[in-house]
Amino acid sequence: MGDFNIQELNNSKIRRTECGKVSALDVIRVLSGRRNPGRTLKDICKKYSDLSTKLYYYSFKKKGGGLSKKTPCLDRKGYYYLLSLLPGAVGDEYRGKSADLVTRYIDGDSDLALEILYRDGDKQRRERAEKRLQVTKTNKEVAVLVQETGGVSYAVVHNDRYKGLYKKNTAQLRADCGAKKKETPLNYMSEIDLTMNSLANQMAIKKGDPNSVFSAANNIRKAYREEMNKDLVPDWVETCLPPKKAREQLNGQLEIPLFS
Questions:
Q1: How far is 93 from 4, CA to CA, in rounded Å?
Q2: In this structure, are strands 56-58 and 22-23 parallel, antiparallel, or unpaired?
């Protein structure tokens, strides 16, 4: 998604106000190559009247001194809106990319969030997001498996996975971590827990049997605990989730792994 940015916004031929707004006339002239940007802007506003409500008027300083006539300008949001209406190659490119982006958002493309985090540059958030998205992807694969095999509902598979890992169902996990009624407990889980949930899904997918997710999750839990020194594990870990006080200390975010 990095190529979505229109670099021409930084073009020195496009005048800017002191507060960062850009000349709508310069944008049309530079990006669409129109020789009469005033006429083009007028035509666009006539066809799309809401653009006129996004215009600000500003007098730029002339090179020889004095001020120019009031020039229609746009803030960042208005600039991108104008791009979607521009005639020519730049307008076509922007409309195409916008359509792709909206489609991905509506379709729930989980990679979209990850791409934004990569651009953000926060390594910790990105690594957690990768693990969270991996669970989402394997959940979708399990959902397909449920449809293909029948006999068990998607909600049952979720509950079985949680029961295998935490000895609790979805509703109980929501209550323990303070999640909303329809919110997934995955949003509150540590990276370790996200990995375990993803692994349980993958094992069930490999077997081709959604009913096997409970045994897979249970085996993962047992294997993990065998590797831990139980003398170092606090008593409350036996319930798999921190008590309310521990959760409150973490401001609702379970950064302590549910397993450790």
A1: 9
A2: unpaired
DSSP 26: H
List of the chain residues with pLDDT < 70: 1-12, 110, 113-114, 117-118, 120-121, 151, 227-260
3-class secondary structure, 93? helix
Say which residue the tokens 């651009």 belong to.
119
Q: According to the model, what pLDDT value does residue 116 have?
A: 72
* Residue spans of beta strands (DSSP E) within 31-176: 56-58, 71-74
Sheet holding 56-58, edge to edge: 22-23, 71-74, 56-58
pLDDT digits 0-9 by tens, 145-167: 888 887 678 888 888 999 998 88
Look at residues 118, 259, 122 and name the one whose alpha carbon lies nearest to residue 195: 259
Distance between CA 175 and CA 177 in Å, rounded?
6
- Contact 120/79 with Cβ under 8 angstroms? no
Q: Burial, 242: exposed, middle or buried (Cβ in 10 Å; 0-12, 13-18, 19+)?
A: buried
